[in-house]
Design goal:
11 helices, 325 residues, alpha/beta
Length: 325
């Protein structure tokens, strides 16, 4: 009997060890692939008057500065290029604390907005359209307010929007400790399929195509450790300054932003709350709000109509489409 128990114990222990080795091997393989994919996207770091900034350029034509959201970087911005017509040049930036753009000692929404201007200066671009996704709207709106002559048109896709409906943030300690481990985060998104992290609404039916799209979005948030400083600021540091922007006493009143603005949102977006986005749209004097019926934060299933709306907006509001900028 004793030998039998030892035999079972050895089998159990061997199974556990094999499982651990298999999980570790899969993690190392996938995190390596994620880093290689990131390195192959061809980003550059340029020294600017606001410090080093990472960016990538795709295509030719009138420039569109693409500003990513939470857990992003220039690579997340490049993921949005399928929504921008091929006749435009995409300049995708990594904001403060994301990938190779360092977090300055003193960070603010205003300083990030000024960094957008610094990047355009470094690239010799006087004016550009701005395409902001999710939390990227925060600094992009401030950019349009502080540097109106630099922004010819502003597109806010699933925009972060301060308003009456508050979206609660998870405890900071969870993200500031556990989520700085790429392995912990990888295990979480691999084995628990937390699709709501990317804004899939509760009850939304994921077809196999939609599920593959969501998995791809999650996979491309790796390595998360290189995005955490920016994510922490977006989630816990920028909100007070952003909420101030819609107050009556704001030094950057939205009602004075004359730039044409296009806001695109889904009626079931759990992050860019429709009521808040609608309220935000009403504060701009020259804004259009386009709402799709479903698809959540990733706007699942609506790429073609959204691209058509963006293309029409850009071509209507960017007067000169040439390389002289």
């Amino acid at each position: 009997m004793a030998n039998y128990k030892i035999y079972l114990f050895v089998i159990l222990l061997s199974t556990i060890v094999i499982g651990i080795v298999a999980v570790a091997a899969r993690y190392l393989r996938e995190i390596y692939a994620a880093r290689e994919a990131l390195n192959n996207l061809g980003s550059q770091v340029v020294e600017t008057g606001c410090g080093p900034i990472e960016y990538a350029v795709v295509g030719e034509g009138y420039p569109v500065l693409v500003v990513h959201g939470d857990m992003g970087g220039f690579d997340q911005g490049l993921m949005q290029t399928h929504l921008i017509d091929a006749g435009f040049q995409v300049i995708s930036v990594s904001r403060f604390g994301y990938l190779r753009t360092p977090m300055p000692a003193e960070v603010s929404v205003t300083r990030q907005a000024d960094a957008h201007a610094c990047l355009l200066d470094a690239l010799g671009i006087q004016q550009a359209a701005v395409f902001a996704f999710s939390a990227g709207a925060t600094s992009s709106i401030r950019f349009a307010a502080r540097h109106p002559e630099r922004v010819s048109a502003l597109i806010l896709l699933c925009s972060a929007a301060p308003g009456k409906v508050k979206v609660s943030s998870p405890p900071r300690a969870i993200f500031d400790t556990l989520m700085r481990s790429d392995f912990v985060y990888w295990a979480f998104i691999t084995y628990f399929r937390p699709y709501r992290i990317v804004g899939v609404p509760k009850g939304f039916v994921l077809t196999p195509e939609f599920e593959a799209e969501v998995k791809d979005i999650l996979a491309k948030t790796l390595p998360l450790s290189e995005r955490m400083d920016g994510f922490i600021f977006d989630t816990y540091g920028a909100q007070p300054e952003f909420y101030e922007s819609i107050s009556e006493t704001s030094p950057y009143p939205l009602g004075e932003i004359e730039t044409p603005v296009l806001l695109i949102n889904a009626a079931d977006d759990p992050y860019a709350v429709p009521e808040n986005v609608r309220g935000l749209a009403e504060k701009f004097p020259n804004a259009r709000l386009y709402v799709v019926p479903d698809g959540g934060h990733p706007l699942l299933g609506h790429s073609e109509e959204v691209k058509a709306e963006i293309t029409q907006f850009l071509r209507s509001n960017v007067a000169v489409l040439n390389s002289s900028h």
